[in-house]
Amino acid sequence: MAERVASLVPGAVLLELPTMAHSALDFREPAALAIAEAVCRGEHNRLADQVPMLDAMPPRAPVRLLWKAIDMAAAAEAAVLPARRQVGQVSPA
Fold first, then answer.
1. Domain ranges of the chain
2. Rounded to a whole number, what is the distance in angstroms from the first to the last CA of the chain?
3. Rounded CA Rg of the chain
4. Out of the domains of life, which is the source (predicted)?
5. Which residues are within 8 A (CB) of 63 and not within 5 positions of it... i.e. 6 or more apart?
């Protein structure tokens, strides 16, 4: 999708940030703001050289906490579900 959009915008620069999973605005606000600032200054053609720095920018703290909470919930669910399945099983007679 991003490649298609970039192909339609004259002078667009498509940045591939390997560790960014979804929207920069949702998950890497500092990187999104740095990119927007460069575009406003007319320096978008320099962004490709800054990909490692942009990709290394950490996500906001609330997003990091959300990821940790989801990881913990998934681990707890994985630990509980096998036990619940065993309780619900009927032993052969």
1. 1-57, 60-88
2. 56
3. 21
4. Bacteria
5. 26, 27
Low-confidence residues of the chain: pLDDT under 50: none
Residue 33 identity: L
Eight-state DSSP code of residue 17: -
Tokens standing for 68?
């940790």
Residue 20 CB partners (closer than 8 Å, separation 6+): 27, 28, 31, 55
Query: What's the rounded Cα separation, in Å, for the pair 38 and 21?
Result: 22
DSSP labels, 63-78: HHHHHHHHHHHHHHHH
The pTM of this model reads 0.58
> Which tokens go with 28?
């890497």
How big is the chain, counted in residues? 93
Distance CA 8, CA 19 (A): 25
